[in-house]
Amino acid sequence: MYAEFSDNLVTGNEMIDSQHKELIEKINGLERSCETNAELSVAVKMLNYLADYTDFHFSEEEKLQEEIEYPGMEEHKKQHQEFKQAIEELHEMLEEQEGPTKEFSEQLNKRVTEWLYRHIQGFDRSVAEYRNMRSNSELI
Fold first, then answer.
1. From CA 48, how far away is CA 32, in angstroms rounded?
2. How far apart are CA 85 and CA 66, in angstroms?
3. What pTM did the predictor assign?
4. Are 31 and 49 in contact (CB under 8 A)?
5. How far is CA 84 from CA 4, 14, 20, 43, 54, in A?
6. Per-residue pLDDT tens over the stretch 84-135
């Protein structure tokens, strides 16, 4: 199942939304490599690319949260750590199974795609709303 960036994932922050679109493209690239029974090295390369971009994106989100003094920042960072842990476990799964399998693809969907949807719709949207409220203090 391919991930799709839709209206229910829009946070209203152009930088964050464009990075979410890029993350989804990277997830889909990895999913495509699984469907074509890519060699282990190809799948690992795609997963590494996803992990690297995720690190960049999470760093950008956390900088934004620091700038606006977001009160839920520590919990948000914990969520990011959970995701990074899932990526590490997917790396281990790829190595153990010597390449992408149906089980790997199912875990990718569950632990990456579904997690990302929930995270964006909950945590990231909350940050965007907080930022909007701070920049429009007359709304508070």
1. 15
2. 23
3. 0.86
4. no
5. 21, 24, 16, 17, 8
6. 999 999 999 988 888 888 899 899 999 999 999 999 999 999 998 888 888 7
Taking CA atoms, 2 is separated from 13, 56, 96, 127, in Å, by 24, 22, 24, 26
Distance of alpha carbon 83 from alpha carbon 3, whole angstroms: 16
Confidence of residue 39 (pLDDT cuts 50, 70, 90): confident
By the 8 A CB rule, do 82 and 71 touch? no
Q: Between the CA of residue 123 and those of 1, 23, 82, 91, 129, what are the distances in Å?
A: 23, 16, 13, 25, 10
**Alpha carbons 33 and 42: distance in angstroms, whole number:** 7
Share of the chain above pLDDT 70, in %: 96
Instruction: Locate 52 and state its tokens.
Output: 């690297």
| Contact assessment for residue 64 and residue 13, using Cβ atoms and an 8 Å cutoff | yes
Greatest alpha-carbon span in the chain? 57
Q: What is the DSSP letter of 12?
A: S
